[in-house]
Specification:
The protein is an alpha/beta fold and 222 residues long. The protein has helices at 2-9, 17-26, 31-44, 55-61, 77-82, 96-105, 121-124, 147-160, 189-195, and strands spanning 67-71, 88-93, 114-118, 134-139, 166-174, 179-181, 184-188, 199-208, 213-221. It is built from 9 helices and 9 strands. The relative contact order is 0.15.
Length: 222
């Protein structure tokens, strides 16, 4: 019964549900201080190199990657963490409140190479002009979105990424059992591979016992 209700909840998910829910949290009182402090702690803890992300390790292997695109940048700690590891950081986030927090927590005087863009990734990505190998990053963004949006985002990344580009997605995956409920989507390895033809994919990261899924997918465009 629980399983049926869970899978039915998928059908009521709208395109903007993740944005709306997160935006309401970003607009709440005290959010700036909380996310600024949590973000600074993540940077101190080198959270971008935890097993679900391994961004620092990936960049050390791909030294020709000079641009980072942070898809669904939230309140900015991932973009701030990769600032200095690449020449240019492009942060994409639909919540104006989250971008406001990001800009205040990581001001341009200290983080001159980040540009913050307000909008949905599926709309903004096609407008970017990338000139060389790029790292695409998502931190728990695609797992909240419906297949429709994720397919669009992956298709644009796939077509726009110059050869030698990589991605680091801290997103859910499972061996062969998909799991969909409202704002939580676990897709199979085969599903992810189908979105990225011509890319070499690696699945790893953290295993979550409850629900039997992992977080951490990496790709290289061959
Ligand atoms: C769980 S938060 C993660 C934020 C950040 N990546 C982090 O790790 O702290 C998910 C973010 O995805 C954003 N989002 C929702 N729909 C999106 C879309 N279509 N394109 C880009 N970002 C989106 C939300 O506004 C939210 O900030």
């Amino acid at each position: 019964m629980k399983k049926i209700l869970r899978s039915l909840s998928t059908f009521i998910q709208g395109q903007k549900d993740s944005f709306k829910r997160h935006n309401a949290q970003y607009e709440a009182p005290g959010k700036f201080e909380r996310d600024r402090d949590a973000g600074y702690q993540n940077i101190k803890d080198d959270r971008i190199n935890w097993p679900d992300f391994k961004i620092r390790d990936l960049l050390a292997q791909h030294t020709n990657v000079k641009t980072a695109v942070d898809i669904g940048s939230g309140t900015g700690w991932v973009s701030a963490s990769v600032h200095g590891l690449v020449d240019t950081v492009i942060a994409l986030e639909p919540s104006a409140a989250a971008i406001d927090i990001s800009k205040r927590a990581y001001p341009s005087e200290t983080y001159p190479h980040i540009t913050w863009h307000e909008g949905f990734a599926e709309d903004l990505l096609p407008t970017l002009r990338l000139t060389g190998p790029t790292i695409f990053i998502t931190g728990c963004v695609l797992s909240h979105l419906r297949d429709k949006e994720v397919e669009k985002i992956c298709a644009v990344v796939n077509s726009m990424a110059p050869v030698g580009s990589v991605f680091a997605f801290s997103e859910c995956w499972s061996e062969d059992t998909p799991w969909h409920q409202h704002m939580w989507h676990v897709r199979t390895k085969a599903w992810w591979q189908a979105q990225f033809p011509g890319w070499s994919l690696e699945f790893g990261g953290t295993k979550h016992e409850q629900g039997d899924y992992h977080m951490g997918i990496w790709g290289t465009k061959l």
